[in-house]
Description:
By secondary structure, the protein is mainly alpha-helical.
Amino acid sequence: MSDHPPASGPEGRGLDVERCRVSDSDRAILSYMACHSLVRVSQVQTLLEVQEPAARERLDALAAAGLIRYGPRLRRQQVSYQVTALGLREIGSELSVPRVDLRRY
């Protein structure tokens, strides 16, 4: 398991979403993330029915494109991810970016 630094800079600045080539699987990930505050790699593995490296690769590509960001790392937990406003726009969602209430964790 690798640690990822939080995304830096304003959301979407200097990011090339076109280069990311958003697939149907990526859209499924973004749609799932739109409904959940925090998502882990294991959830994406289950959603896509793929192995951990493939799930992490897709998440890293989506993060590099600014469609998702690395979420807060909770006590001794895996890295989590959150959808960004750019990711929500990519799937045509009218939802707002999910809020995280760390008191729930």
